[in-house]
Design the sequence.
């Protein structure tokens, strides 16, 4: 599907939205200043757009334990990351992680198609101490409910995928474009700001059998001394019974 990143996405205004959010904060001065410091980091971040291929793979990742709780051990060993992610026209994630704290804000952006200068948004902001993450998560889960858990789980899936798999980055200048319009893979950047398209370009195997097929899926695989390290492994589709016929298909 061809994509045009323009005013109707809200993305061109993302950094001004972050600034606007910070300018309207009230309350305890120390807490407000801490939030503003985090927001200033987000304003400086690159903006990443996830391709449909990437989003499809991210949604297959399981980051919860047997009790349905998000297992943060999968990302604790990662280096410091701070990124702005465009999930779709309305959902934008801004996050920062340094091994001790996970700070993120999710913006749901609404723009009037008849008045592109008019913009509205809802936000959800959280700062988690990784050493006390499970308790903080349970407290916020009770306050906010399932929607909050879905936001956090999607965020962890994105971090795991972007930093544990071989992805490709395609830098798109303002008014630039990448991809093929005829094939429906073109991304055109009509913003004043550059954007980076995150994609995957590796082969997978499709299985055709007469028996029961198991779909391809991602698994967080522990390895190393004392199983202390983690990497993301793709389990290829396979057939439970019958003849297996494999072919390769390039994801573009």
Sequence:
């Amino acid at each position: 599907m061809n994509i045009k990143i323009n005013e109707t996405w809200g993305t061109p205004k993302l950094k001004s939205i972050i600034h606007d959010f910070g300018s309207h904060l009230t309350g305890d001065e120390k807490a407000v200043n801490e939030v503003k410091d985090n927001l200033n980091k987000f304003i400086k971040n690159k903006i990443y757009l996830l391709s449909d291929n990437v989003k499809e793979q991210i949604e297959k990742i399981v980051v919860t334990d047997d009790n349905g709780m998000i297992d943060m051990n999968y990302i604790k060993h990662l280096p410091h990351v701070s990124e702005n992610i465009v999930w779709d026209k309305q959902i934008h994630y801004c996050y920062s992680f340094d091994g001790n704290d996970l700070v993120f804000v999710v913006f749901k952006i609404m723009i009037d198609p008849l008045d592109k200068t008019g913009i509205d948004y809802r936000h959800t902001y959280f700062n988690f101490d990784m050493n006390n993450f499970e308790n903080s998560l349970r407290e916020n889960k009770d306050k906010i409910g399932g929607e909050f858990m879905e936001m956090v789980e999607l965020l962890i899936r994105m971090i795991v995928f972007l930093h544990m798999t071989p992805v490709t980055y395609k830098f798109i200048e303002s008014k630039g474009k990448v991809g093929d319009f005829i094939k429906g893979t073109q991304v055109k950047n009509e913003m004043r700001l550059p954007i980076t398209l995150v994609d995957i370009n590796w082969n997978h195997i499709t299985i055709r059998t007469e028996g029961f097929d198991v779909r391809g899926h991602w698994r967080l695989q522990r390895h190393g001394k004392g199983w202390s390290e983690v990497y993301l492994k793709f389990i290829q589709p396979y057939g439970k019974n019958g003849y297996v016929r494999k072919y390769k298909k390039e994801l573009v």
Q: What stands out?
A: The chain has two domains: 3-199, 203-250. Residues 203-250 form one domain. Residues 203-209, 242-252 have pLDDT under 50 and may be disordered. Residues 112 and 118 are 6 Å apart (CA to CA).
